[in-house]
Design goal:
Largest sheet: 3 strands, antiparallel
Order of helices and strands: EEEEHEEHHHHEHH
Helix content: 40-55%
Shape: elongated
Number of strands: 7
Structural class: mainly alpha
Distance between the termini: 29 Å
Number of helices: 7
Strand order of the largest sheet: 6-5-7
Radius of gyration: 23 Å
């Protein structure tokens, strides 16, 4: 049996044969009923749209000022990059590097890597360097801290409102929208991309005929098939 057609349950390590799922269905372990994978065709377009929107919003958030401060006739505008530059000039190089990486470089790299995978998969092709790029995304996710940065901005604005007039600018709203978009992107289960990748033929191979979906009540075998719940029971939306 081809090892690419097997999947191990992450809860009990039971080994199953992969089956092709229809829309709005979920494959579950025959031993512990844990979710193995879901039908990902409906999610792919949504995640691709969210990723493109988040990337556009990230560019806007870094291209415009976050806030304007007015006091005694003087006006000062601050952006993320100008704040990083100011920290660097004040010899806070470590803090400047952490802020730049956690709020710009890491989220930007994650979004670009997702697009590298999603666009070819949407076109029915295998992305080059799939495993390395996917592992990079998993490694970068804990280090993206847009939501922490957003919370720090709000706290700073409240404190500064007592000494100067604070005028929110375009980037502040962009960071707020970006926080929501990234949360929606992170919800997507990356394991679904593995199953889409495995279902596509390699460039030098002919397409394999899909296996029919099997019922949870199929006859047992030495390697049970991952099952999808019967109609009307246990279906999980994509």
């Amino acid at each position: 049996m081809d090892h690419d057609e097997l999947i191990a349950c992450h809860e009990c390590d039971a080994l199953h044969r992969k089956v092709t799922l229809s829309r709005m269905t979920t494959a579950r372990c025959t031993r512990c009923n844990a979710v193995l994978y879901r039908c990902g065709s409906g999610n792919l377009d949504r995640v691709l749209a969210l990723t493109l929107t988040a990337l556009t919003t990230l560019v806007i958030a870094n291209a415009f000022p976050i806030v304007e401060l007015r006091s005694n006739g003087f006006t000062s505008a601050a952006s993320l990059l100008s704040a990083v530059g100011q920290l660097w000039q004040e010899d806070n190089m470590t803090v400047a590097t952490l802020v730049l990486c956690s709020t710009l470089l890491f989220p930007l790299t994650e979004l670009l890597a997702l697009l590298w995978l999603l666009i070819p998969l949407r076109l029915g092709r295998r992305p080059p360097g799939f495993a390395l790029v996917l592992r990079t995304i998993v490694g970068l996710r804990p280090w993206g801290m847009i939501e922490v940065f957003m919370l720090g901005i709000l706290v700073a604005l409240v404190k500064l409102s007592g000494v100067a007039r604070v005028i929110p600018d375009v980037a502040l709203f962009a960071f707020g929208v970006l926080t929501i978009l990234l949360a929606a992107v992170i919800v997507f289960d990356l394991r679904g991309l593995w199953h889409m990748f495995d279902a596509l033929p390699a460039a030098d191979q002919a397409p394999r005929p899909p296996q029919p979906a099997q019922s949870r009540y199929a006859a047992p075998s030495s390697t049970p098939a991952a099952h999808s719940p019967p109609p009307g029971r246990g279906k999980t939306p994509c």
